[in-house]
Design a protein that fits this description.
The complex is a heterodimer of chains A (222) and B (228). Chain A has 222 residues and is an alpha/beta fold. Chain A has a domain of 144 residues: Glutaconate Coenzyme A-transferase, CATH 3.40.1080.10. Chain A is built from five helices and 13 strands. In chain B, strand 2, helix 2 and strand 3 form a beta-alpha-beta unit. The chains are: A alpha/beta (222), B alpha/beta (228). At the A-B interface, helix 3 and helix 4 of A face helix 4, helix 5 and helix 6 of B.
Chain lengths: 222, 228
């Protein structure tokens, strides 16, 4: 098994930021997804939606400048951009469920060959927290999952069928891992890009379903 | 008309054992802390508590987690009952594993809509959320527009305990930033809505264009001036 270098989370976030367009409304989940906002080009306007009732989430608050009531869904103190606004939970999820969010970025425990996502509970624990994820996965126009390619004990996280409890069925469009960028299509998982120094064969070796490898798979471009 | 009551204790005096109670808040923001403290003093048992999370318990805020820790909650209806990390153990998880507390986990958007529907007199509605997952288990489904949807029911409570920033004597409420969250839908969805507010104002002081919870939904208002 190869012990090659894998991409750090900042680079994964940078790559995902390339999927955003000017004028997009975006929801970023807790963890690596939140980092994506750091890499939006300054000339681009991207409005970040936070499920707890904020449109226009700005950068994290400076230390000492925190406003108690102004947090993101992960409980981090944030700021509000000019043009931002507040609303209640029914309206927040009207935006989510009603198809108004262009891109959602979430973490994953498992993604299946058909784009099923499991990200809220490990079976051995027996209990977990779903939060807003089940709504987000069906509501957003494009769901991007960001995760390590393998689990802490070396198991593939891209699987034929999810064994963990599902967040949503056939909802993932794109997966960015620490070694690859993969599109989920009707025909299956299509490998688009690999991390520097990785070959498609090496990525396949740590992926359970058979990857479709078209001509022209390139190194990740930032 | 004057919906202001003198204290949090007076506001919750008729909350009964076995009541279904909505509690506003998200990650310790917009939580009705004074009303929860009053309920804890009162010791009311076998509560069905509806809330987004008990996150405050893991971060030292006295939200619904204190009622759970004090064994006053028979059933928790929530979207985020346990920390993401499996190594962080909580009183809720301990009671849940011992079969002492029931859990109904609801996707957050579904919970928000079940509350809104209850307040709006809509007994049930279809949502795509949860289709193909355990959140659809035992529920009717139907296809609309070529997509599967799950039938969900309104969630009405005996009491709603909410937190707002300003309230007037007619019960009109406005909120602050992300402390708004579940409070407005919950305020609509109970037989008795009790609002604790940072600031009480006279009718006419709130801009009629900007009232977020019209007073028709609110039965009692309590002044809770301490900033949390």
């Amino acid at each position: 098994m190869t012990t090659k270098e894998r991409l750090p989370r900042e680079v994964m976030a940078m790559r995902i930021a390339r999927e955003l367009k000017d004028g997009y409304y975006v929801n970023l989940g807790i963890g690596i997804p939140t980092l994506v906002s750091n890499y939006v080009p300054p000339e681009m306007t991207v409005i970040i939606h936070s499920e707890n009732g904020i449109l226009g989430v700005g950068p994290l608050a400076e230390q000492g400048q925190e406003d108690f009531d102004l947090i993101n869904a992960g409980g981090q103190h944030v700021t509000l951009i000019p043009g931002g606004c507040f609303f209640h939970h029914a309206d927040s999820f009207a935006m989510v469920r009603g198809g108004h969010i262009d891109v959602t970025v979430l973490g994953g425990l498992q993604v299946s060959e058909r784009g099923d996502l499991a990200n809220w509970m490990i079976p051995t624990r027996g209990v977990g927290s779903i939060g807003g994820a089940a709504d987000l996965v069906y509501g957003a126009r494009k769901l991007i999952v960001v995760m390590e390619h393998t689990s802490k004990d070396g198991q593939p996280k891209l699987v034929k069928t999810c064994s963990f409890p599902l967040t949503g069925k056939e909802c993932v469009k794109m997966v960015v891992t620490d070694v690859a960028v993969i599109d989920v299509t009707k025909e299956g998982l299509v490998l688009r890009e690999v991390a520097p120094g990785w070959t498609p064969g090496e990525v396949q070796a740590i992926t359970e379903p058979k990857l479709i490898v078209p001509r022209g798979v390139k190194e990740i471009e930032l | 008309m004057n919906k202001v009551v003198r204290s949090a204790d007076e506001a919750v005096a008729d909350v009964f054992a076995g009541a279904v109670i909505h509690f506003g808040g998200f990650a310790a923001r917009g939580v009705p802390y004074d009303l929860i403290a009053a309920l804890r003093r009162k010791g009311t048992k076998n509560i069905t508590a509806v809330c987004n999370d008990i996150w405050g318990g893991w971060r030292n805020f006295p939200d619904v987690s204190v009622l759970v820790a004090n064994k006053q909650v028979k059933k928790l209806v929530a979207t985020f009952p346990v920390p993401a990390s499996p190594t962080e153990k909580t009183p809720f998880e301990e009671q849940w594993r011992a079969g002492q507390i029931e859990l109904e986990m609801v996707p957050q958007g579904t919970l928000a809509e079940r509350l809104r529907a209850a307040g709006a007199g809509v007994p049930a509605f279809y949502t795509p959320t949860g289709f193909g997952t355990q959140f659809a288990k035992g529920k009717e489904t139907r296809v609309f527009d070529g997509r599967e949807h799950v039938l969900e029911q309104a969630l009405k409570a005996d009491f709603a305990l909410v937190h707002a920033h300003k309230g007037d004597r007619y019960g009109n409420l406005v909120y602050n930033e992300a402390a708004r969250n579940f409070n407005p839908p919950m305020a609509m969805a109970a037989k008795v809505t009790i609002a604790e507010v940072d600031i009480i104002v006279e009718p006419g002081e709130l801009d009629p264009e900007a009232v977020v919870t019209p007073g028709i939904f609110v039965q009692r208002v309590v002044h809770a001036p301490k900033k949390k």
